[in-house]
UniProtKB/TrEMBL annotation:
GO terms for cellular component: plant-type cell wall. Binds 2 calcium ions per subunit. Substrate binds at P163. One of its GO terms (biological process) is response to stress. Keywords: Calcium, Disulfide bond, Heme, Iron, Metal-binding, Oxidoreductase, Peroxidase, Signal. CDD domains: secretory_peroxidase (cd00693). This is Plant heme peroxidase family profile domain-containing protein. It comes from Marchantia polymorpha. Belongs to the peroxidase family. Ascorbate peroxidase subfamily.
Length: 255
């Protein structure tokens, strides 16, 4: 049977209604009757997690970012399969880098004890990211709730969608445009690097092999910063941990 114009319009219409329904359901009060304590439970859990590990705030926030860039904010970053090592968390930008999985499980357990089967993991990631940022000194924002959890998680999609640290400005703008964010959004969101930590790996190229030239440092880098990073990250020192800035536990304006 030929694919008629009418069929095409009904398919398109159906798609739009799905999108419309999905969005209409999102609300800050989504759990106010099904799990009225959800938000306070998450906040208490985040408080206690950060009290014993204040350096994890950045890690918890980044989980939400890496979740949202791949298939939308659907908790696909959390999916674990005993038979696959090809899921989002196994992708190069995530492996040995994302932190806080165990703590997200802990928050989930607390919610399950109070309201079994109610709060989605995607919403947990979104609320935890907000609460961790606020606890670290950042401003708050309203979190729309009612996201559904996905069931598909592919390393290939994470690798394609997440921005590589080797991208230039134009490529970064393009990468964010792919998820509906513009250049201003990209710059503002990059301010998230005011807290948390990194490995030396992603900066080694700019310190010692810029543009593939052995020994060359990126000339556009602040020279004090470059010297400081070289001290912490000798050549080939891939896994050594460095801090994002001088106040890695605080969401502030030193960045
Ligand atoms: C603009 C493109 C971006 C690039 C290329 C980028 C790249 C990176 C890299 C390479 C690391 C260090 C990972 C490691 O060495 O293990 C990192 C860490 C981090 N990123 Fe980004 N990022 C970007 C955007 C964002 C955005 C939009 C957010 C959140 C809104 C974010 C939040 C963080 C946080 C909080 C950390 C520290 C994680 C921790 O403490 O475990 N980043 N990022
Ligand atoms: C980017 O989008 C935001 C929010 O939609 C808007 O306020 C801002 O003006 C836009 N910036 C650019 C450079 O288009």
């Amino acid at each position: 049977m030929a694919f008629s114009r009418t069929m095409l319009s009904s398919v398109v219409l159906a798609l739009f209604s799905l999108v419309a329904v999905g969005q209409a359901q999102l609300s800050t009060t989504f759990y106010s009757s099904s799990c009225p304590t959800a938000l306070s439970i998450v906040r208490q859990q985040v408080d206690s997690i950060l009290a014993s590990n204040p350096n994890l705030a950045g890690g918890l926030q980044r989980l939400h970012f890496h979740d949202c860039f791949v298939r939308g904010c659907d908790a696909s970053v959390l999916l674990f399969s005993a038979s696959s090592t090809n899921q989002e968390k196994d992708a190069q930008p995530n492996q040995n880098s994302l932190r806080g999985f165990q703590q997200i499980d802990q928050v989930n357990s607390a919610l399950e004890a109070a309201c079994p089967g109610v709060v989605s993991c995607a919403d947990i990631l979104a609320i935890v990211a907000r609460d961790a940022t606020v606890k670290a000194g950042g401003q708050t924002w309203p979190v729309l709730l009612g996201r559904r959890d996905g069931t598909v998680s592919l390393a290939s999609e994470a690798l394609a969608a997440l921005p590589s640290p080797l991208l230039n400005l134009g490529q970064l703008i393009q990468n964010f445009a792919a998820v509906g964010l513009n250049a201003s959004d990209m710059i503002v969101l990059s301010g998230a690097h005011t807290f948390g930590r990194a490995r030396c790996g992603p900066v080694l190229n700019r310190l010692y092999n810029f543009n593939g030239v052995n020994g060359q440092t990126d000339p556009s880098m602040d020279s004090t910063l470059a010297a400081n990073l070289k001290k912490q990250c000798p050549p080939n020192e891939v896994t050594t941990i460095i801090t994002m800035d001088s106040s890695p536990n605080v969401f502030d304006r030193t960045y």
